[in-house]
């Protein structure tokens, strides 16, 4: 019987699905520590973190040889969860110095990618970076306390969120959340969303720690995001598109590609739903949704994961990140109660980190799943 009837936010308790499936605490601790060390200090074909000078560091997207706000903010979340303040501060210093705009229409937002030396490649931001930066900074404030700027973590988080909500009110750019629907945008200028950007479990916490005037906004944004995912995820397969309109329907093809299908970005939806269920456990739909997506992939070998229409039709194109997809399917077990939940936990446990050029995205998702399934992806508030 599942004794976890309320979310971790309320109980302070976190499930260890590895232990529930017969894996020892000692083995899990070793795997966590070893995986951190491999990703941050391991062999050249595994590591994704690199220190820079005396006080900076970066996470490299190995497939594109650049630095992205996605990876930087992910790295900061990994570091705060593992209680690694030095690496956290180095990543934040790099992002603050090289990526965060200090003026113009993007002031307080971050250029979404840059070269390894910090030279910006594009000025525009990608909102998934901002929301992860803010959450990691709030957690850092609670774990380690605020220091001198730029390590006054909680105020840095509030600066980011302030811009995300209020940008555009004085003709100074565009907000990252659509004011009418309170849904996160794909980028500030677009009239559609990315389902994998929706993190209602973060917004619940923003509602406690952001500027007081914005707390009601974040509380409503959490509810709106949960309702949105009901629409964006297919009712039979559980698959969602990479980009979706505010009504949940797949967005039209964009100049940079067709994102109506289930592919790389969309993998994160299953993981996000799992973690929201673990932390807040307030949406019963999430259990059925997690069962559905696990069932869809039940008889498909990871080596044969592909691009799919959201109703489940496969393309010839193979997945670029099969380990990442497997990791998110395993993380869905936090919410699932069907016959596949334990299967995916065990399958994930027996899957090693990815090596080689495309390892970055897969292994970020891998580490988040390892944290979550072991009960170590925690709230600090």
TrEMBL record:
Keywords of the record: Carbohydrate metabolism, Glycosidase, Hydrolase, Polysaccharide degradation, Xylan degradation
Signal peptide from the UniProt entry: none
Protein name: Xylanase
Organism field: Paenibacillus sonchi
Keyword Hydrolase: yes
SUPFAM superfamilies, A to Z: Six-hairpin glycosidases
Gene3D superfamilies the UniProt entry points to: 1.50.10.10
InterPro entries in UniProt: 6-hairpin_glycosidase_sf (IPR008928), 6hp_glycosidase-like_sf (IPR012341), Glyco_hydro_8 (IPR002037)
Lineage start: Bacteria, Bacillati, Bacillota, Bacilli, Bacillales
Keyword flag Hydrolase: yes
GO molecular function: hydrolase activity, hydrolyzing O-glycosyl compounds
GO BP, sorted A to Z: xylan catabolic process
Family, per entry: Belongs to the glycosyl hydrolase 8 (cellulase D) family.
Pfam families: Glyco_hydro_8 (PF01270)
């Amino acid at each position: 019987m599942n004794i976890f009837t309320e979310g971790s936010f309320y109980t302070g308790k976190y499930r260890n699905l590895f232990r529930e499936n017969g894996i020892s605490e000692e083995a899990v601790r070793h795997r966590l520590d070893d995986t951190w060390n491999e990703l941050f200090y391991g062999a050249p074909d595994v590591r994704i973190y690199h220190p820079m000078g005396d006080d900076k560091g970066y996470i490299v997207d190995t497939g594109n040889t650049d630095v992205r706000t996605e990876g930087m903010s992910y790295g900061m979340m990994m570091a705060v969860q593992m209680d690694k303040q030095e690496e956290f501060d180095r990543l934040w210093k790099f992002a603050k110095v090289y990526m965060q705009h200090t003026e113009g229409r993007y002031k307080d937002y971050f250029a979404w990618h840059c070269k390894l030396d910090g030279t910006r490649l594009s000025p525009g931001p990608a909102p998934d970076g901002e929301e992860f930066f803010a959450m990691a900074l709030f957690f850092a404030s609670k774990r380690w306390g605020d220091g001198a700027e730029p390590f006054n973590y909680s105020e840095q988080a509030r600066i980011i969120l302030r811009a995300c909500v209020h940008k555009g009110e004085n003709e100074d750019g565009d907000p990252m959340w659509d004011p009418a629907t309170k849904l996160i945008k794909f980028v500030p200028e677009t009239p559609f969303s990315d389902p994998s950007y929706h993190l209602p479990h973060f917004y619940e916490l923003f509602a406690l720690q952001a500027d007081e005037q914005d707390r009601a906004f974040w509380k409503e944004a959490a509810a709106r995001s949960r309702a949105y995912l009901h629409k964006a995820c297919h009712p039979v397969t559980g698959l969602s598109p990479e980009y979706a309109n505010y009504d949940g329907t797949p967005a039209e093809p964009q100049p940079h590609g067709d994102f109506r299908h289930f592919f790389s970005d969309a993998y994160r939806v299953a993981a996000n739903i799992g973690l929201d269920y673990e932390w807040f456990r307030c949406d019963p739909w999430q259990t059925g949704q997690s069962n559905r997506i696990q069932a869809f992939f039940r008889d498909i070998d990871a080596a044969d994961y592909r691009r799919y229409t959201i109703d489940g039709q496969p393309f010839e194109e193979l997945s670029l990140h099969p380990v990442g997809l497997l990791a998110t399917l395993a993380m869905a077990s936090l919410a699932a109660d069907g016959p596949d939940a334990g299967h995916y936990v065990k399958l994930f446990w027996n899957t090693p980190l990815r090596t080689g050029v495309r390892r970055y995205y897969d292994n970020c998702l891998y580490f988040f799943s390892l944290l979550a399934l072991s009960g170590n992806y925690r709230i600090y508030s």
